[in-house]
Write a structure and sequence with these properties.
By secondary structure, the protein is α/β, with parallel strands linked by helices. The protein contains six helices and twelve strands. The protein is globular, with a radius of gyration of 15 Å. It binds glutamine.
């Protein structure tokens, strides 16, 4: 499942600071992937840390837990505010759910940050297929398909007119972009292939220029 990284950071000091929401989930893997993609990567647990980030990754994990902890840590409203005011954000898996305006089957009290005009279905690929890997062509990612690692992954049920579908598996959108917001149902942070993170770091760079 390791794909060699193609190209690399241009060297020198990192020019953008990208936070990883560090309440629950695979935070370390995203920090490592962002560093490899040329960003200054930092965990975000407090509103002051969020304020210092040029962009934010919301990791894979458990969206209900991330939602509850974001509320408990006083981060939900600051997160919504930053996303509304144009901060780039990238969510993988549970993070995709957090960026959805609507969840088809939320748990009681489950909140999202929102921002992407889409409806997602949690744990959508079904019991037979809880975890699987697939080669996924992602629009905007050069150099061949990425290894898509899907773990109790959501899919995108429907999208609004502003949302670009970047990748499709089994007829379902599994990667989307709306403006400065990016989401994948799969976990590039687990593969050693940093092309999706580089795409996001480039989006962050473009937003601070
Ligand atoms: N099924 C999880 C959720 O609803 C997401 C799983 C993942 O992030 N690997 O949050």
């Amino acid at each position: 499942m390791t794909t060699p990284d193609i190209g690399g950071a241009t060297g020198g000091g990192a020019d953008v600071t990208v936070g990883v929401l560090a309440l629950q989930g695979d935070v370390r893997e995203h920090l490592a992937a962002l560093t490899a993609a040329g960003a200054e990567a930092r965990p975000v647990r407090r509103p002051e840390e969020l304020a210092e980030a040029d962009g934010l990754v919301i990791p894979g994990g458990e969206s209900t837990t991330i939602s509850k902890l974001a509320t408990a840590f006083g981060l939900l409203e600051p997160l919504r505010e930053r996303v509304r005011s144009g901060m780039p954000a990238y969510g993988s898996c549970a993070g995709m759910i957090m960026l959805a305006d609507k969840i088809l089957d939320p748990r009681a009290g489950q909140e999202t940050i929102g921002g992407i005009d889409m409806i997602v279905r949690r744990n959508a690929f079904g019991r037979q297929n809880e975890s699987f890997e697939a080669a996924v062509e992602v629009a905007g990612v050069e150099g061949g398909p990425v290894e898509g690692v899907f773990i109790r992954a959501p899919w995108v049920e429907s999208t609004g007119a502003e949302v670009e579908e970047l990748a499709v598996v089994d007829g379902r959108a599994v990667a989307v972009r709306q403006g400065r917001l990016l989401a994948t149902a799969f976990h590039p942070e687990l593969t050693g292939d940093h092309r999706v993170h580089r795409l996001f770091v480039d989006m962050v760079r473009a937003s601070v220029m």
